[in-house]
């Protein structure tokens, strides 16, 4: 299989270590992975702000750049979800067809569903509190959203449990939003910060050493609250844990 590594712009700019860990994981499992150097923002910020017309050229470029790959993998549930769910509608407006939406995956989703990983080589002897991001749960089905009243499952937790030494815990309200929500945090900062404080306190109550999750945007939001309040808990992307030792 030929895989295109899609690195969202904020990961590229702020969390390059997450992109590197993603590449290490994919190559460890023998995947033929390439990083198209001309990739840009997928257009999610523009579309979420109400300017879908501004996102369309980016969607078309993404489509052309990644069309050749069998799979497109990203360490970000929100960006992968945007390409999967919104590109078809955006491009249909212009009489185009998205040739990438059906083959884009969050990295954890790809490891669990496509590669069916059942063993990881690293060790991470720490207690981590898992944050379930809204996009990951409700768009990509990385886990069971509590409002569905279905048998609980978590692909991210299942992968974490393959890493030697990890103790995975979760806050009481396992899928409560952290309050980031992209443009929501800019348009409604007071509500966003209050939600973030509540979510960070929930994770802190587990007495975990780290908060982890599959979306750097949520970790960035909560990390800012942790830093401002000088809390002892640390942030780490789940991919960095899965790639420990590589």
From TrEMBL:
GO terms assigned for molecular function: oxidoreductase activity
A GO term from the CC aspect: cytosol
User: Which PANTHER family does the record match to this protein?
Assistant: LACTATE UTILIZATION PROTEIN A, UNCHARACTERIZED PROTEIN YKGE
From what organism does this protein derive?
Myroides marinus
Q: Which domain of life is it from?
A: Bacteria
Pfam families tied to this protein: CCG
Could you tell me which residue ranges the Cysteine-rich domain spans?
3-82, 128-222
Q: What name does the UniProt record give this protein?
A: L-lactate dehydrogenase complex protein LldE
């Amino acid at each position: 299989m030929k895989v295109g590594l899609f690195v969202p712009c904020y990961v590229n700019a702020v969390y390059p270590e997450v992109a590197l860990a993603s590449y290490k994981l994919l190559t460890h499992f023998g995947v033929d992975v390439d990083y198209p150097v001309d990739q840009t923002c997928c257009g999610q910020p523009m579309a979420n702000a109400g300017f879908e017309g501004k996102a369309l050229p980016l969607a078309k470029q993404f489509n052309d750049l990644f069309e050749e790959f069998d799979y497109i993998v990203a360490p970000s549930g929100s960006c992968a979800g945007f390409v999967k769910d919104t590109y078809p509608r955006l491009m249909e407006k212009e009489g185009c067809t998205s040739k990438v939406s059906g083959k884009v995956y969050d990295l954890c989703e790809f490891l669990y569903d496509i590669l069916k990983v059942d063993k990881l080589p690293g060790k991470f002897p720490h207690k981590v509190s898992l944050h379930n991001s809204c996009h990951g749960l409700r768009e990509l089905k990385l886990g069971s959203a509590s409002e569905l009243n279905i048998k609980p499952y978590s692909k991210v937790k299942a992968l974490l449990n393959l890493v030697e030494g990890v103790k995975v815990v979760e806050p009481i309200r396992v899928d409560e939003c952290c309050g980031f929500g992209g443009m929501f945090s800019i348009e409604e900062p007071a509500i966003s910060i209050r939600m973030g404080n509540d979510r960070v306190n929930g994770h802190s109550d587990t007495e975990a050493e780290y908060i982890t999750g599959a979306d750097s945007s949520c970790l960035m939001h909560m990390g800012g609250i942790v830093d401002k309040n000088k809390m002892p808990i640390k942030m780490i992307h789940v991919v960095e844990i899965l790639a420990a030792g590589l």
